[in-house]
Amino acid sequence: MSRREHQRRYFFEPLLALAGGSLAGRRVLDAGCGDGYWTLQALEAGAEHVVGLDPDPAAIEAARSRLESAGVDRGRWRLEQALVPGARIDERFEVALCVGLMERIGRPVELFELLSGAGVELIAIDTEVSGAPSSFFELSLAPGAGGSGVALLPSREAVIELAAQFGYDCVPLAHDMGSDEGLGDYAAGRRVAFLCATEIALDELPWEEPPPVTPWWRALLDPSLRGWQQPQ
Asked: Is residue 230 part of a domain?
């Protein structure tokens, strides 16, 4: 099974379940759409209309090629090269996908302002997370991050607390991916998916428990162990 197939089972299928089994009748914002894989998944799940935003022109072209090759009605989707956050959005959406986005931006508060302002009721976030054991954003210097080269890597608790500030309940999803090749970041707790909702109850979703905290002296000796211990 490919990484994306694992991801679909991990967070996209639970998202669909919360939405009643499909995205029929819903407008979806794919923030940081990349090559359009999740844009297409949303369309195939019945979304009425999907808008994909990404600052990378090559990604937008790849997404357009993917959607056109799939033969999706052009009236059901639109792609725009735009910074996220930073794009002006005048439309309303019920669902948002933020896959691999939060780890690349330096303005997480503005991201939630954008989503909340667009009326989004259900959000799927899949992101690399900081190992900090409390609500924390770790400075990350990454080429192209948010157009500035600077990103703020959220801890698990930071995502939950930030979502709550905008009226969203938020659950870090448990997974059973194991240590399959290409899934080490999930297995080590360095990557987590979250589902956030304003109206839908999330009580039945399984929570992902954080790995144990790494002693400070071990983190100094081995920076790769910052925050949480790697599972053995």
From this structure: no
| Beta strands, E only, 100-217 | 122-128, 137-141, 150-154, 169-172, 191-197
Neighbours of 24 (CB within 10 A): 11
Chain segment 185-214, per-residue pLDDT in tens: 998 889 999 999 999 999 999 998 765 555
Residue 191 domain-assigned? yes
Strand order in the sheet with 122-128: 77-81, 49-54, 27-31, 95-99, 122-128, 191-197, 169-172
Inter-CA distances, 107 with 22, 88, 164, 189, Å: 31, 15, 16, 23
Q: How far apart are the first and last CA of the chain?
A: 23
Token pair listed for 95: 């669902």
Shortest CA distance to 97 belongs to which of 156, 161, 63, 53?
Answer: 53
Spell out the residues 6+ positions from residue 23 whose beta carbon is closer than 8 angstroms to its own: 16, 42, 45, 46, 47, 48, 95
Q: Range of 91's domain?
A: 3-225
**pTM of the predicted model, to two decimals?**
0.88
232 lies in some domain: no
CA angle 34, 158, 144 (to 5 degrees): 35
Which of helix, strand or coil describes residue 77?
strand
Tokens read off for 52: 């994909």
Owner of token pair 């500030």: 165
Q: What gap in Å lies between CA 112 and CA 129, rounded to an integer?
A: 17
Residue 34, pLDDT above cutoff 70: yes
